[in-house]
From TrEMBL:
TPR repeats lie at residues 27-60, 95-128, 129-162, 163-196, 197-230, 266-299, 300-333, 334-367, 368-401, 436-469, 504-537, 606-639, 742-775. This is Tetratricopeptide repeat protein. It comes from Methanospirillum purgamenti. Pfam families: ANAPC3 (PF12895), TPR_11 (PF13414), TPR_16 (PF13432), TPR_19 (PF14559). Keywords: Repeat, TPR repeat. The keyword Repeat applies.
Amino acid sequence: MAFLKKDQQDRAYYAFKEGLRIDPENSELWFQTGIVLAKQERHRDAIKMYRNALKYDPDNLNAQLRLGMSMHEVGMYKEAIPVLSHLIERESENEQAWMYRGACHLALGKFREALSDFETAIDWGSEQTEVWVLKGYCHVQIGEFQEALDAYSFAVEINPDDPVAFFGLANALVHLDERDQAIEELRKAVKIDPEYADAWRMLADLFADSGEIAQASNAYEQVLKLEPWDLDTRYSYSILKAELSDDKAAVTDILNQIINEGQESVTFYNNHGLTLMHLKKYESALQAFNRALQLGPDNPSVWHNHGAALYKLKWLKDAMKSFQHSLKLNPKNVNAWIGIGMVATAQYEFSRAAAAYTHATELCPRKVNVWIMLGDTQTERSMFQDAVAAYEKALELEPDNPTAWNQRGLALRLMDSHPAALESFEHAGETKNARPESWINHAITSFELGEYDQSVNSFERACKFGPIPVDSWLIYLNALAYEHENMKVIKGAERFIELFGPDAEVLFLLGVAQYELKQYEAALHHFRETIKLDKDHNDSLFWAGLTLLELFQFPEAITCFEQVEDNHPDDYQAWYYHGKALVSRGELQKAEFILKHSIQIYDQSYEAWSLLADVQSSRKAYSDALQSIGKALELVPSSNSALILKATIQVALGSFRGACQTYALISEPDASDPAVLIGYARALYHTGSFREAYARVTRLLVNDEKNPDLWHLRAEIERAQGLFDEAAHALTQACKYAPNNKKLQSLQGIVLYEAGKYPEAISVLEKVLEVDSQNGELWKRKGAAHEALLQYELASAAYLKASEFLHDDPDLIRRLGVSLYRSGKCDLSIQKLDQYLEVVPDDPDIWEMKGRALYNMGEYLLASNALSQAALYHPDDTNLLFRYTQSLVKSGELLSAIPTLDQILERDPDNADAWKLKAEIEQALGRSDEAAHAVEEALRQIPDDPGLMLARVKTLYESDNYPESLDMVRRVIDKAPDNSEAWSLYAELLWMTADHNAAAAAYERILAHDDTNARAWFLKGDSLQNAGRFEEAAIAHERAFSLGGDPSVGLMLSKKMRYLQQRKT
């Protein structure tokens, strides 16, 4: 990946190839190898790599996309469409897939389908110029010229530096008869890309059509410089040149010949069409050829010319038919075969083009340009060996042909035969008609080989022929950068900007050179200018982050690295420096996560392992830190800094003998460093060698009495021996020589805290906090001391203060939530408990505490949810399950509570509270038998519980067991004489068992508390009547009727009569 980042494709290829030798089923390696090959335009080989990637990971959507893209590049359009369609089914928002599938439809002439795909790609957010250009081309092909104009205009708006977009815009304007505007757009195209032959050709045609012969002639000259093999252009140029020089002989001869031959002959219209062709009036020429064919439909030359006119008009399908018809009449028409090859090439049907050019070479093997076109086509087909053979055939015919040598070199380079390619480019550069492109290609090839000095020399040779293109400048500057010729890079970049204006890549290279020269402010300025031009320039974002690190602007640096990570998640260096910036800000938890991700991507970075170990050590994750520093030392075994850190970690882990061994490995000059000596002494002390450690410290103090670290260590030795007063004295000395060392001052309070002297610890910490009021850790320690003294109000206040400074400390959030809960502030505690659970969602104790707090607040449903989470982690905790069941009952979820309650009782059948709760649930559900059983079980555990006894009374009463009910309810009243429900049941039972006077007395007591109870009045009256107390009964009945009566009395009377009848029998 590092080679890819540096654009060293060859090295990346061989690195991935070696990786696949070791792990041939690694889908990612196959995928990355395909990326390298695709960047080298070796698309057919890339296709094999992507297919292997999908073989071992069918869900690799990136490989699916790249497979379709490479198939498109080699003309496998029909095969690419199902591949891209499958990807779209899986990932419909992938605008790249839509665009490339549209391009395949376009190549196959399915313009409507292509348009649909391009529009979908745009809907999914594609902002590429290419999709709008292709959309415009489709509109042109189906005659929707205004829509084409809109599409190309949008493409130009997105990327005003895209010559193809301007060319397409001009083409649409021509179709709309806006020729003057088309000329302006073409001028922009060739200004951006002076080597854009098609744009020069169209510009020449438009000038010729408008009669501006001189400008047309100049434009044709540009075409011929770029494509000297274009015979049509050369002939048209000759005619225009003759007209320009007022020597009309050639044109006049042609016209006279046409007139002499007669206007209604095939020859007349054919020659007239040829003349119009040479004047670039292709539509008029086509009309002439059409008339010629009407007169002589069997003339193969006319059919060829007809096809040539159609080809010029970009009507490729019709052109192909005309060339084919010419061959049908004359299979040996070389020009027709060449025409078929040109049309097939324009349609990206390279196999068909190669077959046509091969026929042409068989018919006329002495045509140099045909062999070159055949070679170019074979290159497009990735058949590089065949391409080289074609170019070599051309060189046999014309040994000094610079184009053949140059194209041969390109094919050899694509075959990874870079040395042979260099020789070919050298031949091209040394020919009589050599052009700068040959030395530019020589420079590029040297660059790919990593021979940057040779690349620089070749670019400088190219400059002797004339100005080099913009993109070649970029490679030249990159070569200088790789050679660390920073001053040359700066001068070259400034010259580039002077010639061509600001360019993102050039500004980036300028910034890198300035960074290496430690001109950080200037470097940062140029990185930011780069990003203004290209917001997705990840290298600039990365280097801007590095520069901001050097300028100590850490938040801004982090922002840069995060943007790089968003764009390139596998850039391990960005993750590493992101972590480094977080460390500088003290955000260690985040830093650890980021560094681990960096190592997950690339685990051979000593710096990343070392920094991760340092972070983990600072966060007291010493076991992890030891593993990390071990990995670092595997990569660089003799690193003193890593050995010192390892010893420090071993001390923290209690592996003191190991620390001693590590200290012994540290070499000079670090071995004599006081910190190392003290660390060694500390390790000895922790191995139990107190005397030796104390002796070393004492000796060190003789020579360095004012060293607070030595006093600190002495205090620790004394603490280990229980000499707390002496330890406190030593810490006093340490603070004396380091009066601003808050850590030492804090340690004194910690010593007292660890000794269990919490009030004294609080007193010391409060003094420290008077000076260092923003020390969150000290506030947290103070809170812990208060918490140990069960002073939860004070503890929560201290924790709250600590939270002002320790924003992302999960332990602090937890402690604050717990102390707020224990101080009775349930509503406030829930906020903190929720905040903690967002970070640590698997803490069952906190889930339980949250559930209790919500329960106390009456939020029973929420409480049940929280308690259910706690129960997931402690499914065997019956107390927790019981609280969960209580919350379900309180929230009305009675049926949901029963399974959990049964689970509790299965484990603890003597759990009276559970039986009692189950009884309440069963009664509420109206299931009397189950309720009775539950009550019996509960009473077996708590026989004197009034609530359970009353529940038992109800079940007995409902089962018509009145005597036992009566006995039980009397026991309830004895224990709870003010229980109104018990009195009500007692009175009914007395009435039911015909104890009339007792029933009347009981109802008297009930009515004394509730005079509006119609049922009680009626039953009292009935009892009085049965007792012969008629006057009192009449008063009671009258009162009952005045209250409206009670409809349930009739049922009760029936029940009573049945009971009395049963008792009598």
